[in-house]
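Lab notebook, bench 4. Still working through the backlog of constructs that have no structural model yet. Next entry is a single chain of 398 residues. Request: give me the structure tokens for it.
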Amino acid sequence: MTASKDLPDDDRPPPVRLAYDRHTWKEIAHLLTNLPLALAGFVYVVVMISTGVGLSVTVIGLPWLVCGLTGARLLGRMERARARALLGVRIDEPSSLFGYRRARGRERRSRGFLGWVWTGLKDPVAWRTMLYEFIRLPWGVLTFCVTLVGLFVLWPVLPHVVRGLANADRVMVRGLLSPSDELERRISELESDRGVVVDTAAADLRRIERDLHDGAQARLVALAMGLGLAKEKLTEDPEAAAEMVDEAHGEVKLALQELRDLARGIHPAVLTDRGLDAALSAIASRCTVPVTVTVGLDERPAEAIEGIAYFTVSELLQNVSKHSAARTASIDVWRTDDRLLIQVQDDGHGGARMDGGTGMSGLSERLGAVDGLFVLDSPAGGPTVVTAELPWRQRGQA
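Model written out:
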């Protein structure tokens, strides 16, 4: 019993339960539907492969087979949904076919139609689904017959028989319909992370638009109106016009400051010109608590990685100023092999959480979207230590 608690949910044996409960009836429904679905899948596989191979001497043979493999992916999705509903098997969906093709060296773009065909023929998800549908026919006949006969003849022991047959089904589904290889897993993760990147970019654009509209744009409109009034009073009341010009001059200074602040929020000039050491020292000087900055880098990372590191530290320091009640804080940046590591620590009261409304979950999602890591250690009473890890890419590398 103790060992089973350490197993993932999908890998634990089904718990002991009463005969003919709702789970048993779901398993019976799954076994009875095996035959018609297995027959349809078997016919589909045989027809698509035989016609594709038979037509391979013509120009339509291999494209036809690729279309058949694409259809097999749809069959696999249906089978995963059926196993999820009737057997309780939770299996991640493999990456989309387009995602798989992009990951395989971008053959479709680089080699045109032939690249598209070749990539489709190498699709492991589709071939495993084809194999699954091919071997399911004899198994579907067996499970259908045993379950149907058992409903009338083997009623007392049928739940145990159904359990064994359903467990064999679970093994086949997990073995052949899961995104089992590492490439598939990474593609699926990256496709999920892409949504985070898009949402983050859209939120940043809305923030920039709002800041421009409410800040510098409003001041510039007021400035234009003030200068227009000053122009009208220039001849009839020079002193009043001079006062209005002075006020306009003050508005210009404020608008320029707001534009500089906005530009710093997009990409600060000090980061572009002098790198992380100077840029992090600049934001540390604006923090409400003393901050020690240590940057141990012999060279600068790629511009995108450098920007993510800067804004990650910037947001963490804002949290230190607003929420930590700390007396001191520190920033350490260094490189280990092909990873850039950042650690921000403060001696505040701690208790920060990923779901605490301080933006920690957003930072974690942003770093995860670029294959980074985000670790928060903040026990009650402090200290709070945040470690961020980013992939290292050389400057100028795509």
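Notes after review: Residues 1-11, 98-110 have pLDDT under 50 and may be disordered. Residues 95 and 353 are 31 Å apart (CA to CA). Flag for follow-up if needed.
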